[in-house]
Amino acid sequence: MATRTNPLQFVQQVRAEIAKVVWPTRRETALTTVMVLIMATLTAIFFFFVDFVIRQGLEGVLRLFG
Q1: Whole-number Å distance between alpha carbons of 53 and 66
Q2: Which has the closest alpha carbon to 47: 57, 35, 55?
Q3: 32 near 24, Cβ under 8 Å?
């Protein structure tokens, strides 16, 4: 069973944990944002071509039997 801590101890523990957080720099944030945008664009292009190939194949099969 978990032991209860009083509110003062809880606040002190939260502050101690927050002090351990390392926030990214503005440059790191910008680089990560650019990388995400590039990967999202590449993924969109990839799925566009996959959709195109599947659509062309399906239309070919339907033309053949339709």
Answers
A1: 19
A2: 55
A3: yes
Give the pLDDT of residue 2: 66
Compute the Cα dihedral for 22, 27, 30, 34 and give only its sign.
Answer: negative
In this predicted structure, the answer to whether residue 41 has a pLDDT above a threshold of 70 is: yes
Q: Is 32 a residue whose pLDDT tops 80?
A: yes
Q: Where are the domains of the chain?
A: 42-66
Tell me which H or E stretch contains 60: helix 26-65
Amino acid symbol at 36? V
